[in-house]
Amino acid sequence: MTHDPFGNLREWGPALELLDELAVSGKLAECQRGLVRILRYKGNWRLREEVLKRIEGIPSPSDELGGQVLTILADDNLYYDARILANNALIQWLKNSQRRLHQEFILKIRKVIEKLSKLPQPPFFEEAIKKLDSEIGLSGPL
C-alpha cells in the first residue's frame, strides 16, 4: 500500500470512505504521509476532523504526523473543535505509548502548552490543555 492512498482531496467522499476502511482494518499507521496531507489540507473540515478522531489509535506516530497534530493544537487561527481533537490525539498517544514517543516530541508539546497557557483561552479549551499538561506530567521528568 502506498503511504498516501487518499488521492484528490477535493473529492473527499472517497477519501473519507478509505479512511474508514483503513481504520477498521488497522492499517492507518501505514498511511501516515497521507494523513499528514489531509491534516494540512484546509479545504474540508470534516475530513480533517475524521483524521484527528482516528489517529489516536496509531501506536507510533511519525515525527511528521505528530508535528502536524501539534501544529493544529497551537494554531490560534483554527477553530477550537479541531484543536481539541488534536489535543485528545496527543493525550491518547501519551497514554498508549509514553515510552515510544521521542523525548524531543514531548518537549515540543510542553512548549506549546506553555505558550497556550500564557494566553487567555476559553474555559473549555483551557481545561483540555490542562488535561494534556497533566498527562505529560505522568510521563515523568525529562
Looking at this protein, list some descriptive labels.
142 residues; 0% strand; 67% helix; single chain; 7 helices; mainly alpha
How would you summarize the topology of this molecule?
Blueprint: H1 12-25, H2 32-40, H3 45-54, H4 63-74, H5 80-97, H6 103-118, H7 123-138
Helix pairs in contact: 1-3, 2-3, 2-4, 3-5, 4-5, 4-6, 5-7, 6-7
Walkthrough of the structure:
This protein is mainly alpha-helical and 142 residues long. It has one domain. It is 67% helix and 0% strand. It is built from 7 helices and no strands. It has helices spanning 12-25, 32-40, 45-54, 63-74, 80-97, 103-118, 123-138. The longest helix is centred in the middle third of the chain and has 18 residues, at 80-97. The protein is globular and about 40 Å long.
Quick synopsis:
The chain has 142 residues and is mostly helical. It is 67% helix and 0% strand.
What fraction of the residues are assigned to beta strands by DSSP?
under 5%
- Give me the number of helical elements: 7
The dominant shape is globular
Mean of residue pLDDT values: 89
Q: Gap between N and C termini, in Å?
A: 37 Å
Poorly predicted runs: none
Helix content: 55-70%
Order of helices and strands: HHHHHHH
Q: How many domains would you count in the coordinates?
A: 1
The major β-sheet equals: none
The radius of gyration computed from the alpha-carbon positions, rounded to a whole number of angstroms, is 15 Å
Say how many strands there are. 0
Q: Structural class, from helix and strand content? A: mainly alpha
